[in-house]
Amino acid sequence: MFKNIKTAPADPILGLTETFKADPNPDKINLSVGVYKDANGQTPVLKSVKEAERRVLEQEDSKGYLPMTGEPAYCARVQEIMFGEDHEIIAEKRAVTAQCPGGTGALRIVGDYLHVLHPSASLWLSDPTWANHGTIFGAAGLNCEKYSYRDPKTNGLDFDAMYESIKKIPRDDAILLHGCCHNPTGIDPTPEQWAKIGELLARQGVLPLVDFAYQGLADGIEEDRAGLLELTKKVKQMIVCSSFSKNFGLYRERTGALTVVADDAQQAARVMSQIKLRIRYNYSNPPSHGGQIVAIVLGDKELKAQWVEEVADIRNRINEMRHLFVKTLKEKGVTQDFSSITGQRGMFSFSGLTKDQVNRLRDEYSIYIVGSGRINVAGMTPSNMDRLCEAIKAVL
Ligand code: LMR
């Protein structure tokens, strides 16, 4: 049966990391996958996470299965960190959460849910969006469409075009919105624009699916809720897929969540019963370790404060790199305007580099950037900056 199987194409993001690892060049630079690196080029384990892990090892007394929806304490902390502890959605029990294997696992479950329960619904994705979105939802059998997002002339948000294309989305379709730190562009709507989007979606009867994977990496843990909170003021029903990969550095622990917000508690429970079926046939129940870490950190005042500071360090370092990158390019004599990168948020920026330039950077300089020109700013360090900017100048 395997005789005629052909090699599959490499994944546009994770496949590049495989090539990077095999590259013998000691000066190679990986700006592809969205993983944070500190100034020494390491992906650290946060101190708050280390302490929580110590407590997990001490306290854990069973390796029995978790419920299909995961650990209730973790799910409660997910809702509090996303909406804020006093939010009416929590008080009214209008939200139900399932712990999931990463944000990706949560997205796939939503794909299966929409495909089976709302078979005529299309899912609208921003143009551009994370390379894996189309693949996940396509694998689930969903029809995906595009709405306008980035203005190539300004490398900013084309809000008018976005608004106009959302206006055309039919009732009972769904739209995927990036809660903050849009992947791949780093361009987010303002809170006022979020309010307008929410109003429009409510009027149109379109379900928002919010991919919320970078809370804390733009302006702060609380500040980065702004868009989601604007939506909750206008729209009663939504689904949020969230992840602690980036803001807890828990990449390999697959620590995510799927939260359904409904009109009332009974409706939320009914939707979750359908979600549970999809969980059961995909992976049965989630892994536990990362969820325990998050529940311990967010449930302990001191550890939480330490974590908030650690996220601030991550955010500040990324922002410093944004400025240093633009400054160094100028110093090297690059005339093309990269200044919009300093205003973008989160790990990623759209560099405007063409596919050919990206290929040359990889083949001639061992610098790895996703084919779309998306750069992981969190992979830049003061020590790789000169080499990076010189190479970019050479290929421009
Ligand atoms: C990315 O966009 O690089 C990250 O979200 C990691 C991934 O799984 O692609």
Description:
This protein is of the alpha/beta class. It folds into 2 domains: 14-44 and 303-395, Aspartate Aminotransferase, domain 1 (Alpha-Beta Complex); 65-299, Type I PLP-dependent aspartate aminotransferase-like (Major domain) (Aspartate Aminotransferase, domain 2, 3-Layer(aba) Sandwich), CATH 3.40.640.10. It has helices at 14-22, 47-59, 72-83, 88-91, 102-117, 131-139, 159-167, 191-204, 226-234, 265-282, 289-298, 301-331, 355-365, 385-395; strands at residues 29-30, 95-100, 122-127, 143-148, 150-151, 156-157, 174-178, 207-212, 238-243, 256-261, 348-350, 367-368, 374-376. Helix 6 (131-139) links the parallel strand 3 (122-127) and strand 4 (143-148). Helix 12 crosses helix 14. The longest helix is centred in the C-terminal third of the chain and has 31 residues, at 301-331. The mean pLDDT is 97. The structure holds (2S)-2-hydroxybutanedioic acid (LMR). Residues 13, 33-34, 130, 132, 183 line the site of (2S)-2-hydroxybutanedioic acid.
Provide a compact summary of the structure.
The protein contains 14 helices and 13 strands. The mean pLDDT is 97. By secondary structure, it is an alpha/beta fold.
